[in-house]
Amino acid sequence: MTKKKRRLYMLGLALLGLGAATALTLTAFQDNIVFFYSPSQLQTQQVGERNFRLGGLVEQGSVRKLTDGVTTEFRVTDTAHTIDVRYRGQLPDLFREGQGVVAEGKLSGGVFVAREVLAKHDENYMPPEVSEALKQAGVYKKPAPNNTDAKTAANAAPTNAPPAATKKE
């Protein structure tokens, strides 16, 4: 075997090994990718049996606890479409009707079975995916600015004022 053929074989083996490593890496990543869908997007796309995130607003009057005390059913909407959600576990403290929510799980028989529910963390926050889905549905309303910070700052003592005297005994 000549040096030229040996180099070609080595190059071919190296490319084959690189291709196999790339295929294994992509297969491993495919299992960990979680897509985000709004209720409207679920009406037009087939998601199959894989995990995904569902985001929107918790529909008013839709939250109800089942008799087992652990399972909660509610509906998530983007105001255009609505999907039923079932969650078994303790909901976050900030979970309530009319607020943004992201749930991760699978679609089973037309009902989204959530294994994790994430709620917003303050009165002005909405998950970026949820706000984008609401913008696409044409119903997103930007939250009003919070003016309590300005009032608090106006009532505070000036920063260049001398410190208050303390009485020593």
Question: What would you say about this model in short?
Answer:
This protein is 32% helix and 26% strand.
Main sheet: strands, sense, barrel: 5 strands, mixed, barrel
- Unreliable spans: 147-164
Please count the beta strands (DSSP E, at least 2 residues each): 7
Give the count of helical stretches: 4
Query: In whole angstroms, how far apart are the ends?
Result: 101 Å
> What's the CATH topology name of one domain?
OB fold (Dihydrolipoamide Acetyltransferase, E2P)
Envelope shape = elongated
Query: Which structural class matches the secondary elements?
Result: alpha+beta
| CATH homologous superfamily annotation of one domain | Nucleic acid-binding proteins
Helix share of residues? 25-40%
Can you tell me the CATH class of one domain? Mainly Beta
**Pattern of helices and strands:** HEHEEEEEEHH
Q: State which percent range the strand residues make up.
A: 25-35%
The radius of gyration over CA amounts to 27 Å
Which oligomeric form is depicted? single chain
The averaged pLDDT comes out at 79
CATH architecture of one domain: Beta Barrel
| Adjacency order of strands in the biggest sheet | 2-4-5-7-6
Could you please describe the fold and organization of this structure?
There is one protein chain. The protein is an alpha+beta fold and 169 residues long. It has a domain at 32-138: OB fold (Dihydrolipoamide Acetyltransferase, E2P) (Beta Barrel). It has 4 helices and 7 strands, in the order αβαββββββαα. It has helices spanning 3-32, 39-44, 128-137, 148-155, and strands at 35-37, 52-58, 64-65, 71-77, 82-88, 100-108, 111-119. A 5-stranded mixed beta barrel has the order 2-4-5-7-6. A hairpin with a 5-residue loop joins β3 and β4 (71-77). The radius of gyration is 27 Å and the shape is elongated. It starts with a helix and ends in a 14-residue tail after the last helix. Mean pLDDT is 79; it is low at 147-164.
